[in-house]
Batch of 2 targets.
Target 1
Amino acid sequence: MLRKNCSAPSAQLTMTDIKSLLRLLAGNHVEFIVVGGVAGTAHGSARNTLDLDVAYRRSSENVSRLVACLSPHAPYLRGAPPGLPFRFDAETVLSGLNFTLQTDLGSLDLLGEITGGGGYEDLLPDSIELQIYGVTCRCLKLRRLIEVKRAAGRPRDFDAVAELEALLEEKRNE
Amino acid sequence: MVSTLPRHRTEDRPGESAALPPDPVIEVYKKDIDRSLLRENLKLTVEQRLDQLMEFQRAAEELQRAVRAAHHD
């Protein structure tokens, strides 16, 4: 079936291997919750998205696991000029918060907090566990996904929020 | 509460899909939503939905490559 394009990328499209990224993170016991467009797709959205957004737990143990499993995949700041002194290590992640990365598996946004949603611990009660691609990972519930997108209040999200709310209605009618 | 679901489901209990207070701006956007696409997607498993997204990305990338090549001819 057709899929609607939600936002035109400024540069060329780059496929994100969602399957491999989820397997990588979950297989290495990284604590994370899928949020954003891919969470919308998991719930049934028909919109296109080019990156995987995850809210990660900011404990030093979890960040160490995150860094260890992602490091072999050449993480670099997406859109930044090449050659910057960017070092993807636990110190960098814990000193920062949100990172938009390009990896050799595609675009991955690591979010320490999301607008209107807070951090991993805040989102955890509103997440569900999915058995997918042979691993178990968590995904933000549809209702919460709508709430955080509403809270962000970005005009470019209006269409996406409308679609997610329509999905909620369709699920009610199932 | 942390919950576990079968792979084809993304909602876990009655009330999870309860309506949110309507937002008048969103209600306007909602009129243009193609619900037939959503209904088709709801028939799929979560894994099939994500596979479909990656397949779309792959096709879009291929299309973009072809357009670039055509411009260079």
Target 2
Amino acid sequence: MFPKATRILVVDDMAAMRLRITNQLTAMGFVSIEQAGNGEEAFAMLEKKRLENNSIELIISDWSMPVMTGIDFLEKIKANECYAKLPFIMVTAEGEKTKVIRALKAGVSDYLIKPVDKIVLEQKLLTIWAKQAAS
Amino acid sequence: MATPITKQHQCIFYTVKQENPSSQLDVKNLFNTIKDIDTALYKDQKWLVLHLPAIQAVSPNFCSTLCRISTYAEQYNLKFSIIAEPKICNLIIKNGIERMVYFATSTAEFYKNNGIDSSVSTTKDKALVFLNCLLESTLTTMKVLLELNQIKNEVSIITDSAKIPNIQVGAMAGIVSANFKGNLVIGFTLDVFKNAMSRFLQMEVTEMTPEMRDGAAEFLNVIIGQTRTKLSTSGFVINQVIPSVIIGEKIEISPISRQTFIMIKCITDIGEIHLFLATNSSEDN
């Protein structure tokens, strides 16, 4: 499992959903969780944290957001060599195949469909960590 | 093993997806789940269809469960059908239960063999498909987001605004499809909303903050998202307008004369939560 000190960035335009995921992660023992309201804010946060030598190590992002969507944010970070290997979980209200395929092609680590359950989130984190450890 | 239940064309579909082909099917759970389906789901249905798209083997134990399901379906005057690959159908037939079961190798073949018109053609049919998906999505969303143990839905058509309960917090979103347009509203009393948000955020909520306001819209977003996903498998596309949150002492929700106005009352262990669906009358389409 990811170490409890892993620096996590939660991105969602809905403050309530950011708070829910943050509380779920806190209940799992994670202590370093940042929040952003859209892809643009999230990218600025990534840059700021990197310059502070405090880089984000895992991103959990919603798909549908104003200003910069989750998929645009994912594509932007995968095109940047500083962040290309960052694990990225996409969260969306819909499980349409075309969306899943687009996210997989863009390099998403895993995919969560709302309503997100804490146990499912924990399971996804375990899977991603196991994949990372194996590679 | 995923076991979603869907209702279409007077058929109740029960799909068994064996995620790990080497694992054994939990036959006891299979029968118990079918047995536990709310009897209201059987109302006006003609078929109970067991769809086994990924089953690789059939054990005698599984065949005996199929016999029990078949007998159970008979009690509700339902015909029982199995949709599976030819080799699986043959294995089941060899176990001697073909007399009670209608076999098909695909959903399309099942519809064709049994003379079922599977095209959702009229606006009324589509609205019904939408309503069923909406009910299932509401149930799933509330169970997971609010960790509800008990939830019961009551659906009614409202003609008199006096019968609409008091709402203090709500969210409203427009829905547009090729066949109908409408509005979906989720409504809570303030106390129920605080209880709901406490469960949703997993922390005690005592006052309304901007995060709390977002919560009502997020419930609606997730319900509509789930509904859209379920509908997309039936080739039915709906678009959604971004929800708005409404907060007030006594919000009045009223039907207008040309609209069909449906209220879904969700009776839960944290109180009653209401969904309102207003759509155009069929003459508009």
